[in-house]
Amino acid sequence: MSDSLLRVPMLKDEIALSTLISSSPAPITQLSSLWNGLPIDNTLKTTLWAAWTPSFLYLLFECSYVSLNISATPQFKEKTMGLWDRDVVEAFVAPDSRNPCHYREVEVSPLGEWVDVELEITNGERKSNWEWNSSVESVCKIEDSVWKTAFRIPSETLFGHNISAGQECVGNFYRCDGTEPDRHYITWQPTMTPEPAFHVPERFGRIRFVDPT
Question: Which of 82, 102, 125, 133 has the most crowded Cβ, counting Cβ within 10 A?
Fold first, then answer.
């Protein structure tokens, strides 16, 4: 497990995602490395703002880009399988810090497409529960060589209970950009695998929900 600790501050009130994406609050961290630990170029700068209320985890990614790898025929009614082959940001969260191999994944594209899944790794075998539904809500914006997505995930679907101050979990945040052979696999905590891979719970970082007041 990574020694990194991300402190996620509490919001006093819920916030509309349209307001959040327009306000661009100061990020609390950056996704500054490729999966193998090498630094990314500034043309791919990726920042993350996060906050919480008892009912929701809020995330705002701002992603600089050179070109976009997006669908010509996006759909928003259900999960978009294969979204991970396009430009996308991803949040992996293991609700129980003592069991990082049981985690939940939510992905959102620059267009607002989404996919979510619950995963468990046992004896090196990864099992996917595609029936899990995060109930994620998202708003996206593309402008000036930066795409943004603000989204929120209900705490009940992510953790099974309300978030509270002092609560900790583990997880990681990722971004996929571009097309092969120049595809970029960008991370908060590098996974340090021989080939690009995100499903590496032993490299998850700690996430603590704090009340700064």
Answer: 102
